[in-house]
Amino acid sequence: MADSIQMNVTRYDPDQDSAPTVARYEVPLRKDWAILDGLNYIKDHVDGSLSYRWSCRMGICGSCGMNIDGEPKLTCAAFLSDYAPGPIRVEPLSNFPVARDLVVDIGDFMEKLPRVKPWIVRDDVTVIDGEYLQTPEELEEYKQFSNCINCMLCYAACPIYGLEPDFIGPAAIALAERYDLDSRDRGQRERLDILIEKEGVWGCTFVGECTKVCPKHVDPAGAIQRYKLKAAQENVMAFLLPRGTR
Amino acid sequence: MSEGVAAAHDVLLVGGGAAGLRAAIAIAESNPSLSVAVVSKVYPMRSHTVSAEGGAAGAFAEDDTLDEHAYDTVSGSDWLCDQDAVEAFVQEAPRELLQLEHWGCPWSRQPDGHIAVRAFGGMKNMRTWFAADKTGFHMLHTLFQTSLKYADLTRYDEWFVSRLLVDDGRVHGVVAIELRTGRIEAITAKSVVLCNGGSGKVFPYTTNAAICTGDGMALAYRAGAPLKDMEFVQYHPTGLPFTGILITEAARAEGGWLLNKDGYRYLQDYDLGTPEPTPVLRSMELGPRDRLSQAFVQEVEKGRTVESPYGPIVHLDLRHLGAKLIDIKLPMVRELCLKYERIDPVKDLIPVRPVVHYMMGGVHTDINGATPIEGLFAAGETACVTINGANRLGSNSLPECLVFGARAGRAAAEYAASAQRPPPVVMQQVEDEIRRIDQMRRPERGSERIADIREEMQSTMEDSAGIFRSGESLSKGSDRLAELQQRLERVQLHDETQVFNTELVTALELANMLDIAETILQSALQREESRGAHQRTDFTTRDDTRFLDHALAYRDADGAVRIERSPVTITRWPPGERVYGR
Questions:
Q1: Which of A41, A114, B143, B574 is the most interior residue, by most CB within 10 Å?
Q2: Residues B286, B288, B294, B296: what is their CA dihedral angle, to the nearest 10 degrees?
């Protein structure tokens, strides 16, 4: 193994630059270094002005998503040695406005998330009455959807979101499905009213990239398909029965 | 609203992890008319609560009692906790965990649908609720998503708080940098709750995330509030050697063994019980963290550990548990090992070493989170109530965030309802702060690098205030920290831009950590005994006559640390021997 590898990193300062540029850095190539360790090496020892987000460095906080050789990845969970001999292209996640260097603006997702009501909709039982019973099988129904870490890789991979920014997007729909499938929840109706709109599930043409790039094995594409089925059934019902009688 | 003020609120929560979000929801529910805001240097779902794995303790099972949870916590703390706080804690923890259940937390279940509990270190009964081995992640996302219900809750995501506004012994808000623009502004509030986590990053090997830089502790300390019991630093016995990534205690609770280089379950040599094939509560691998980490160091001294590129290690053996149990109960352990060590715990031994995990110390508060500064509250790891004393038991910190987050939130709301708007005089402090930060960014200051000072601080702390310390090591460490403080004045920042200037943030974080580090050393120096996580090689036994008390570290006007002492509250459990495995 060579003892260093080149990282070609996107730089962008909105106050100075009219367009992003690429800076080339040599970093030590060590067996157990993640891409993030390479970026930290640059920031600590070469150029302190490089900006990017990171925190837990164990693949659970969702901060450090970037495009690596064109593919969205958590940089704490992708390793330099897997890209040897390099160079490695490090860019901000696609489909988001770039705030600075490798930092993207995820304000759009943060604004969309509450719209799908990602919380338990139910108020007929108080805490004093004890826990809602939920069997391991019932837990299994929604569990994978609850593992979303909001890392935004699925938005970066989604060609629809790239073309149609109003699309509510894979992670938000997966979280809606997570609550729909939770035996404790009674909010399916309210969520369907939101997701049945055109920026809801109908935007998706089932490309399936979201599921492929998810680092936590969540299946947003599956969630979207399930919603389309629910929405289609709803439309048939709407045709057969006026709303008040449903 | 005056110029330079982003907004004025009734209550401001600094930090959006479990404690901050629980506080926010408590206020939204109890006092919906108050204006409440959460300010955090990261989006709430990135907070370090997300990394907690094993579980959250609450006596809920039919064969468990509040008293037993209290006794385990008190003896685990080596009698340095405040027992009134522990009694409140054990009483309210089950209800808080149930509340999370009602908000949707995917707690693991028994076949009949009831909550499942698992064993945990130092706990005599099975009482640790868990969501597989991603408990913190699920609790945080449940709290965050539930908080979205309250549309009136204001959030300042990615704002770095650099100063508290305090006048005449009262808090009036904060000064913060909006990272997106670089603007420095005041966010005023009638009460402020510090919920911004611990400071594990003052040490080199830690499970803590990059963001755990003791910001809340430093803010309070500089504003005149004391930091309590800072000498007690928890080393978790099982971190991965290079990354410091946590391998949860649940791995041992499910039956994992700790082996030295001879494949020997060495804990049997350290008064922790005799090895049995299946886990025994409060025994061997389920002993408390302080004792297990100390046993590791003694194994190193006996030459019975394994050498690795990152220093000595021992092995955690899960192989006998089988793939099925590991996949159901410990999926993240397997995932982390495969990813970061390229080993599979189903068939390989996991290399582990003790790594810094948790600060028992923090901002001194009463049982409702109130600090000595009026209107200023604290909760979670930032705070020191203290239920943890000299050693925290695993799975007590998540429910601590809930119980004392809710308590501090309600107390802050009550205070805000009667408090006055901030006096105009505090605006002068905003200008002072803008000047201080501008000063830091002047290129002519010097040529010191942030990373160099940070790395030296970390190695200084490990060398001087690690698992075992002495008067000599601590004094030497303190001298080195003083040099580093001077070098900090000469740090050169290369990033001259306004937008998302993370270099400026790391410089401010480093300043926070250096202050925290000094309080740890001074508190440790003055505690001439060995208790819990604080082990002095020159004072090897517990001394209840001189040191059954808390250390309160104040910042003097000249920047020096001044230690005062305050009594421990004992209600029902007089000091006794800590007995494990017999």
A1: B143
A2: 20
